[in-house]
# Entry
Amino acid sequence: MSWQDFPKVELHLHLEGGAPPAFIRGLAAEKGIDLSGIFTPDGGYRYRDFDHFLKVYEAACTTLQGPQDFHRLTLAVLEQSAANGVVYSETFLSPDFCGGGDLAAWRDYLAAIESAADEAEARFGITLRGIVTCIRHFGPEQARPAAICAAETRGRFLRGFGMAGAELVGRPGDYRWAFDCAREAGLHLTCHAGEWGGPDMVADTIHDLGVERIGHGVNAVKDPQLVADIAENGIVLEVCPGSNVFLGATGDWARHPIARLRDAGVKVTVSTDDPPFFDTTMTAEFEGLERAFGWGEEEFRALNRTALDAAFCDADTRDRIAKKLEPAA
# Structure
């Protein structure tokens, strides 16, 4: 069975990380920016390891210099997602890349992204909601203006707050102020943890930041008691198998812990993370899980239900998307 047209829900997608390389090359040419060093001969992104990936990611973002660039980016990313069957997506947005954390500038960027999301919904049938992320390796003080931007612009489109970046910089509790600010504003909370950090990083993130979801979280599998606690408390993992395999965080597909976590009662979902950087799509994620674990329609519908239940959208949007996930009569 081809999984391309199978309807899908994705909860872990970085907007800038979803930028097709050709899109970034086009912007660089328009603006006279030399980014030749970040592309492979066949046109993909080139980097050596995770730390270098972050540098290449940030270099690509230098082409995104105004709200209109982000409007175009959002359309390009959502067109690719919709072509792979995604009917609902949540994307991470960084005020650091959208006005440098300035609230007035952020409002302009956010309006452009939201406008593009509405246009994409009309054109491609995909619904998008946003999650502001602070960048961990920029430090706790820089996380504060990101949280303020999120708190001041919460609404129909902007639903959550989280943290991305280099996971091994600092400890989760260093960023407590930013997460408390977002929580008090009524935003849902998620945070990257347990991709490179150990089970202790996942446990501290849950305890110190009070998140509902964990981005990745796969290294929790190394601590059976933590896995049991995650399952008991209903913490949802935004698992990105293709990303983990591509970066060498978990070994090959057959050794990826998503099946063990699911069998232990953990609520797992599947996403692409930064799809063109990791040579993946939501279709490829489903294909990889089918090859590795024999998962099929029953498992993928269950993953969709878990993801939609954990989505940060409002109830009306959730009900509308649920109809798109129903099997064809």
